[in-house]
Structures are given as C-alpha cells and as structure tokens.
Write a structure and sequence with these properties.
346 residues, TIM Barrel, 13 helices
Length: 346
C-alpha cells in the first residue's frame, strides 16, 4: 500500500460518482489545430486558450462532469482574467487530470501498428503535476485491427506500457486512467472486435497485476465492442451493449473503481445510446459504475457553433452542456433518442 492509497481511492470514487463522467479535453496542440483548421479558426495558442476557457467556464458543467483531462499546455494556462485554469476547475468543484503519454508512435518491426511512448522521465512529470494540483492522469494505447494485426507483440508492448504508467501514477498520487483503445477504423465485424478487445483487456489486466497496480485506485477507459466503420454488417445498439458488457465482465476485476468509455469516432448520438443501453439493460449485473469519458462526442457541437467567435461563446456553452447532460442521463440508463429529436425540433 502506497502513501497515497486512501487519497487515490477517494479520488477514483469521486471521478465516477453517479450521473457524472470525465471530460477528455486533452487533445494535443496538433490535433486541436487540425480541428480548428476545418472551421477556419486561427491555429494559435490564443485560440486554444479561448476554446479551453469556453469549455471550463461553462455554467453547470460540474453537474455532469467530475473532472476534465487536460493537456500540458492547458494545465499551465489562465483565463483571460488571469485566473489559472486549475483554480477555475477547483472553484467549479471539479477534479483536474492530465494526459501524460507522449503519443502513439510506429512500432519497430511491426508495420501499421503503434506503441505509446512517454515512460522516460514520467516519475518526475507526475511529481510536478501532483504539485500543481492534478489528481488523475491518462495514458492511451492504440490497437488497430487489420490484415494480420494486431500482433501479440503490439498488444503485449502496449499492455506493459499501460501497467508501468499506472504503477508510477499510484506511487506519485495520481489516479491512473488506463486507456486501451481498439480502433473503430476498418471493416472488421462485431465478433472480430470482441476477440481483439478480449485479448487486449486480458493482457492489460495481466500486466497491471504483475506491476502491482491497485484496481480500486484506477479507472479503465475502454473502447466499446463495435463493428468497424466500413463493415457491411453494422450492429444494433443492443448488440453493441451486450457484446461490450460480456467482454468487460469476462476481463475486468470487480474491484476496479469504475469504467469510463471513450467514444472512439462514434457519432455523438451513438455514443450516448450505447452507454445508455449498457446501464439500462445490464445495470444490475455491473460490479462497477459505467460512465463516459468523451471528447468529440461532447465538444464537437460546441466547437462547431463557436467557430472562434467571442459572440458565440454563451450559445456554444449551451451545446456543450446539453451533450454532457445527455451522457449523464445515459450513465444512469435514462437517456432516449427522443431527446435528440426534441433538440432538432427546437
């Protein structure tokens, strides 16, 4: 038991309290700039600061979001009024988190596969972020399904990286979000996605166990079991929910503090509907809270509306809050697609 064990348990519990999820706003500058480019927003630090301020100062956000995951640039920024974002977050009653990996890089000897880097110097970075006020962290591994892949080497390397990261986080006082993402790109079937997700989660928890990671002091951020975007045979909402829950129950220890899904390229409506079905149909079978940790599925409508214009901020924030609320309802099994229809009818 580390010196932070009790604090980590309490933080993890707060992160996935009923009706709340985690907001992933940790896009790298490059990714953020790409999204800005599409909308003609200047790709500058000032624009990124304004966008992040829009998100973090959304009135009522903390009703549905326990905390945001920040990027290194963001955790050091302030509001236009000079208030550090970390204070803005704390004053709103949210918990700040930080992305600590340095990205998925091409894996040597394994074409079309990636391995996430960032372990070098991580202990020191964790100490700095904890000192600044961060209380949880995130590390994303990427698994691609394709011809002859993923290889066992790719799954093992990424599982090992996730486990070492998680152990370092718990040593340094940050709750690790462990994110093994099986990508939605490709034409693979629901069954194939199940096989790969099953193998990936099995490897991840084997490594977490080997590295001595405390399950009740971590959050799992998995992808859903879903057919590839290009698959001719798409699945129903109920089929995705059933396959995902089956895979999680098989692989995820009951003592894990919580599960917060990534949206992984699903539409905003799909990601809400799938999360809702899991909680509505299988809620009584789940040993852990199951909620959301979405990025685009919550932020995109707000970003589209804002488009870099100050006069659009208030209305953009309403769009953000709407999606956060819908996913909060989905985490309780209380969302319905009728809500989307009401929205378009307004």
């Amino acid at each position: 038991m580390g010196i932070y064990a009790e604090e980590l348990r309490m933080t993890a519990k707060s992160m996935i309290q009923k009706g709340k999820g985690i907001l992933a706003m940790d896009e790298s500058n490059g990714t953020c700039n790409k999204r800005f480019d599409v909308l003609g927003i200047p790709t500058t630090e000032a624009s990124r600061q304004a966008y992040r301020e829009l998100i973090l100062t959304t009135p009522g956000l903390s009703d549905y979001v326990s905390g945001p995951i920040l990027y290194d640039e963001t955790i050091r920024q302030t509001s236009k009024a000079g208030v550090p974002f970390l204070k803005v977050i704390a004053d709103a009653g949210m918990i700040p988190g930080i992305k600590v990996d340095t990205g998925a890089k091409d894996m040597a000897g394994h074409p079309n596969e990636k391995v996430t880097e960032g372990l070098d110097g991580l202990r020191d970075r964790i100490a700095e972020y904890y000192q600044m006020g961060a209380r949880f962290a995130k590390w994303r591994a990427v698994i691609t399904i394709g011809e002859g892949i993923p290889s066992r080497a790719c799954i093992e390397a990424n599982a090992h990286g996730l486990a070492r990261y998680a152990a370092l986080c718990q040593e340094g006082g940050l709750v690790p979000i462990v994110e093994p993402e099986v990508l939605i790109d490709g034409d693979h079937t629901l069954e194939r996605c199940y096989q790969v997700t099953d193998e990936t989660l099995d490897a991840v928890f084997s490594q977490l166990y080997t590295q001595g990671v405390a399950y009740n002091q971590m959050i799992l951020k998995p992808s859903m079991v879903i057919p590839g975007k290009a698959c001719a045979q798409q699945a129903t909402v109920e089929q995705v929910a059933a396959a995902t829950v089956r895979c999680l129950l098989k692989n995820v220890p009951a003592t894990v503090a919580g599960i917060a899904f990534l949206s992984g390229g699903q539409t905003k409506e799909q990601s809400s509907a799938h999360l809702n079905a899991m909680n509505k149909l299988f809620g009584d079978q789940l040993p852990w809270p199951v909620t959301f940790s979405y990025a685009r599925a919550i932020q995109q409508p707000a970003l589209d509306y804002w488009s870099g214009k100050d006069e659009n901020v208030k209305e953009a924030q309403k769009h953000l809050l709407e999606r956060a609320k819908f996913n909060s309802l989905a985490s309780k099994g209380e969302y319905s697609s009728d809500l989307e229809k009401q929205l378009t009818a307004v």
